[in-house]
Design the sequence.
């Protein structure tokens, strides 16, 4: 089949690599326009664009797909299927109708739970026991289309968004290759109206840790916002990003260090921070971090 692929970040790049490795003909790749990044703020290609360039696949980076020009450009590629994964642009109905077999989306949740922008973060933040990947036939609504294939996975007790992202990325790559090989025999499963939730974009205002909350909630906050934007707290004037945590036994005044090993009392229970980062430094495991910035028993953390 002639495939067009639309995606931008690493999650999508993994799927594009899998489709290329499976021998599919990728006639064009769509990705977000290059964005400034790094200290020099130079324009950088997205991970998906870089994969396409490495394999000499034509790349298209329109600001929108709503124009007649952009739609003609896509139609001229004569795609059988368009694969979409974390692209970042809305596909109007005119675009959805161009490929012979429509557009398939790789979505990182068990639909209809967590439609929308941040399904991996929200699954961890909400304490979900499992999540997964759905291959969905796209329609005009936000992640409302029928599901062709789904695969579930348990969320680890200490798993971060970054770790879960990488697992789901690999799962999604495998599942889209499987879906294309079985496309004629798959039965679309209409999403039920019951159980619909929306994964709103992550707001940086969600990142400040309130130590009066229960340990389980704080652990989920730390893990769910790692690596970005990173939950944070203050030790005096020093801002510390918290990037890994586990719930442990302990009690005390919220925000107080219960030992010298980064165990912090919460409103109920305690968490042990397992990974952290201070300004100007890279992320470190807690043992390495504490060698550079001690948090002795009795120290108090807070969000200012």
Sequence:
């Amino acid at each position: 089949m002639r495939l067009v692929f639309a995606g931008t970040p690493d999650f999508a790049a993994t799927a594009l690599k899998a489709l290329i490795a499976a021998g599919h003909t990728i006639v064009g790749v769509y990705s977000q326009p290059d964005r400034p990044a790094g200290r020099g703020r130079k324009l950088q290609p997205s991970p998906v664009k870089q994969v396409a360039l490495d394999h000499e696949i034509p790349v298209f980076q329109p600001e929108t797909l709503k124009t007649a020009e952009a739609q003609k450009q896509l139609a001229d590629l004569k795609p059988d299927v368009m694969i979409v994964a974390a692209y970042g642009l809305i596909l109007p109905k005119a675009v959805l109708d161009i490929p012979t077999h429509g557009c398939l989306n790789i979505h990182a949740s068990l639909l209809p739970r967590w439609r929308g922008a941040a399904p991996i973060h929200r699954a961890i933040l909400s304490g979900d026991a499992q999540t997964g990947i759905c291959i969905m036939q796209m329609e005009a609504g936000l992640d409302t289309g029928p599901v062709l294939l789904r695969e579930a996975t348990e969320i680890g007790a200490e798993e971060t968004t970054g770790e879960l992202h990488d697992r789901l990325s690999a799962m999604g790559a495998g599942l889209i290759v499987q879906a294309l090989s079985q496309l004629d025999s798959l039965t679309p499963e209409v999403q039920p109206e019951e159980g619909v939730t929306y994964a709103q974009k992550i707001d940086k205002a969600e990142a400040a840790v309130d130590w009066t909350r229960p340990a389980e909630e704080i652990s989920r906050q730390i893990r769910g916002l790692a690596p970005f934007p990173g939950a944070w707290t203050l030790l005096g004037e020093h801002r510390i990003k918290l990037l890994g945590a586990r719930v442990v036994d302990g009690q005390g005044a919220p925000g107080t260090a219960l030992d010298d090993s980064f165990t912090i009392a919460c409103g109920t229970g305690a968490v042990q921070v397992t990974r952290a980062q201070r300004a100007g430094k890279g992320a470190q495991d807690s043992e390495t971090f504490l060698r550079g910035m001690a948090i002795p028993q009795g120290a108090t953390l807070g969000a200012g």
Notes: The chain has a mean pLDDT of 96. The domain at 204-292 is CATH 3.10.25.10 (Methionyl-tRNA Fmet Formyltransferase; Chain A, domain 2). Helices lie at 10-21, 47-54, 68-75, 93-96, 119-125, 161-181, 215-224, 286-292. The chain has eight helices and 16 strands.
